[in-house]
Amino acid sequence: MVRLIPKDTSFFEMFAAMSNNLIDAARALVDLFADYHNVESKIEDIRRIEHRGDEMTHSIMRKLNQTFITPFDREDIHTLASSLDDVVDFINAACARIVMYRITDPPAEAGQLARLILAQCEELEKAVSHLQKSDDVLRHCVEINRLENEADQVSRVAIARLFDHETNPITLIKIKELLEFLETATDKAEDVADVLETIVLKNA
Amino acid sequence: MVRLIPKDTSFFEMFAAMSNNLIDAARALVDLFADYHNVESKIEDIRRIEHRGDEMTHSIMRKLNQTFITPFDREDIHTLASSLDDVVDFINAACARIVMYRITDPPAEAGQLARLILAQCEELEKAVSHLQKSDDVLRHCVEINRLENEADQVSRVAIARLFDHETNPITLIKIKELLEFLETATDKAEDVADVLETIVLKNA
Amino acid sequence: MVRLIPKDTSFFEMFAAMSNNLIDAARALVDLFADYHNVESKIEDIRRIEHRGDEMTHSIMRKLNQTFITPFDREDIHTLASSLDDVVDFINAACARIVMYRITDPPAEAGQLARLILAQCEELEKAVSHLQKSDDVLRHCVEINRLENEADQVSRVAIARLFDHETNPITLIKIKELLEFLETATDKAEDVADVLETIVLKNA
What we know:
The first copy, chain A, is an all-alpha fold. The first copy, chain A, has helices spanning 9-34, 39-66, 74-100, 108-130, 136-165, 169-202. The first copy, chain A, starts with 8 loop residues before the first helix and ends with a helix.
């Protein structure tokens, strides 16, 4: 249905690069919880990926200011870039909690949430790569929303379990916040899906 | 002032149905706190209403993808549907805290906030039903904002009171979060009012 | 690059007044933490500034409804006004925590965050005042984002330090939330920068 004329292909290439960078961050997050060793150095890697994401966002903005004709609305290019950036930011912010709170023993559900974030990022990459040519975008957005619902369930169960077992209120605050930041990363992925849906609808 | 040509009446009917579903959720929430018995089964009812809201949102999206001419901007139909859905989501999320945290004795202000949410939802229903024909929309939006301010005050007083009396930090975290989710539901209703104002302004 | 035809100058004057009101709020916040005496009366002053901001927002909305031709898109005027209002709201909400939680001894980083908020508000005032004539807007937006990153770092270090030293969980919850509200005010300033960038991009 959506068949955007590729007025300037390189915006699509830049979004593809951002999505792949996002997948790198999500994969590093999965690895972190799968093998919880060398935590500080793994988190430092994620911080570097987040920094690369910032630079990619700035490049898109710079290009936007130098380009007269864009493949879709200028403001939507801006919103898409910053919403993709938000996902990496929250992956990074979740990791920052691990450092700030010296979390040595994250709950199993943290790993489950990381895997759901990775699944969403893989769907996002597909949706973004289809923006230029087809209506498959919406199908991937539906799946991203489904994964967000699943993450919501996982985090609710994890937090309920935490309140059932953890008697130290300070530990409880720390672990609860780690789970909430991971869950918010899945909300941010859903926000990207929302932006993609809006772009498809406007150009339908 | 706004006098949108009803190019496709049934979008308005779908939004009317979503608003009425929202009122159902808010009314069930008021009933829950007014008579705090059979809590699990009442919360299960609210979860069912929330699920119905999800289906209504999907129907609107599906229709949007099959409709060529829409009564107002396609992306605004999308934003309005998802912002209405957010209100039910937060009513449901507040109830989820009751289950997760096994809250047996909610504070009186939870009931007060539920009544403010219901008042906002009734205003939203009126604003949505006026979208098609008149400028009354803005008047209802002003009232929704006023109710949000009132809810903000109620929750601040309730949380201050909680910190004055509750000495168990874990109980405090639970009740504080219940009050915050209820207050956030009133923020989400204000967000719908914002979307409605934008639609009216664009079509003025 | 952006050179908006000043169809109705007075919207720009109203936005200038809102930005100056925002600077008043931020300056009062800096003063509060710099000299932590007469706390209630200083916070009452901030609440009054926030109330003035509400009235300014309503005036802009009223004018918008009475004006046929606007200097830039009607919905962007609405979004800019309400995003500016959000910054004052969060400054006020942070102060409300001081009252609600009877905070007598705020951490030094609260003052640091207040100074970063003031720096952002000064940049916002400059960006808003350039909206009408030049492309300097984007330069100020970059600086607002940089200040937000700095605030994020300050609040992370402050909260890490809090968890290292504070053993009373209830005190910890109170101070953590004060720091988070201050940090969220810097996020809201970044949101205004985002709105300004979008306006500039749409009118480039």
